[in-house]
TrEMBL record:
Span of the signal peptide: none
InterPro entries reported for this sequence: SecD/SecF_arch_bac, SecD/SecF_bac, SecD/SecF_CS, SecD_SecF_C, SecD_SecF_C_bact, SecF_bac
GO biological process, one term: protein targeting
Gene (name only): secF
Organism: Desulforamulus ferrireducens
Compartments where located: Cell membrane
Keyword terms, alphabetized: Cell membrane, Membrane, Protein transport, Translocation, Transmembrane, Transmembrane helix, Transport
Name of the protein in question: Protein-export membrane protein SecF
GO annotations of cellular component type: plasma membrane
The family this protein is said to belong to: In the C-terminal section; belongs to the SecD/SecF family. SecF subfamily. In the N-terminal section; belongs to the SecD/SecF family. SecD subfamily.
Transmembrane stretches, start-end: 12-31, 124-141, 148-171, 177-196, 227-245, 251-275
Taxonomy, superkingdom: Bacteria
Lineage, top ranks: Bacteria, Bacillati, Bacillota, Clostridia, Eubacteriales
Major site of localization recorded for this protein: membrane
């Protein structure tokens, strides 16, 4: 049986390499911020005849708006989120698209300011901090403080990988990004708790067993459950990615990255990380005792 704890440095290095790659992308390319963060126009059009998303996107390309987000509202109605447009630009684009696609009625043309993005960012950070504090308190109560630190370390690992990959793949960041991050935090901590629960059970059964061996045994005892859970979730997400349409593709892509990262961190980062924290704590106590 492959010894995960003994080979833990390999997994630490893999994670570190991916995080550094993402940080490099963040520093050089930045994030592809969407309308929620940068501001822009929200245009709603009701076409006189049936048109497809591709036809609307092709028409938008004539005005260099092909990167706009499109959402079908049914009954030939489309919601178009563009970059910030001047009055003249939006009028020219709307009239041109309407003429090209057989006529359309303008239902809405609103300019959304970037102040929404600042508010979203503040609320998201606040939500993350509150969630982290509550999880530390809960895990400390159920298990121990060092396991809470290891679990939060795993979650931060997942968030950094999601943000880094979003920059690397230039996935548009909008309000759904916040939802994706919070979803992954909830999913990842659930998997970690299962592993810690098994470690606690094994500790009760055999306290004399060497800690590294016990952690490794616990990881393998929960491995099948972790993999099966991840695969079933990934199957659903892949189906949504291929058949869910362009509107939710960014959200689903972020979830796929986060689910894969969460499963990896639960098995290869949080469990071995707690072992290292315990080892360091034990060495410090031994050194303090020797010094005394």
């Amino acid at each position: 049986m492959f010894h995960i704890v003994k080979k833990r440095k390999i997994f630490y290095i893999i994670s570190l390499a991916i995080i550094i790659l993402g940080l490099g992308s963040l520093l050089t390319r930045g994030l592809n911020l969407g309308i929620d963060f940068t501001g822009g126009n929200i245009v709603e059009l009701k076409f006189n005849k049936a048109v497809t998303l591709e036809e609307v996107r092709t028409a938008l390309a004539d005005y260099k708006l092909e990167d706009s987000r499109l959402q079908s509202g049914g009954d030939n109605t489309f919601l178009i989120r563009t970059r910030v447009l001047s009055q003249a630009e939006s009028q020219e684009a709307i009239e041109g698209i309407s003429e090209k696609l057989g006529g359309a009625t303008l239902l809405r043309n609103e300019l959304v300011g970037p102040v929404i993005g600042k508010e979203l960012t503040k609320q998201a950070i606040l939500a993350l901090v509150i969630a982290a504090v509550l999880m530390i308190l809960y895990i400390t109560w159920r298990f121990e403080f060092l396991q809470a630190i290891a679990a939060i370390g795993g979650l931060m690992h997942d968030v950094m990988i999601m943000v880094g990959m979003a920059s690397l793949l230039q996935i548009e960041i909008d309000s759904t990004f916040v939802a994706a991050v919070l979803t992954i935090i909830g999913y990842s901590i659930n998997d970690t708790i299962v592993i810690f629960d098994r470690i606690r059970e094994n500790l009760r059964i055999n306290r004399k067993e060497e800690l590294g061996e016990l952690v490794n045994k616990s990881l393998w005892q929960t491995m099948a459950r972790s993999i099966n859970t991840v695969l079933t979730v990934l199957f659903v997400l892949l189906a949504l990615f291929f058949f869910g349409g362009n509107t939710i593709s960014n959200f689903v892509t972020l979830l796929i990255i986060g689910i894969a990262s969460g499963a990896y961190s639960s098995i290869f980062i949080s469990g071995p990380g707690w072992y290292d924290l315990r080892r360091i704590q034990k060495e410090r106590k031994r050194a303090a005792k020797a010094a005394a």
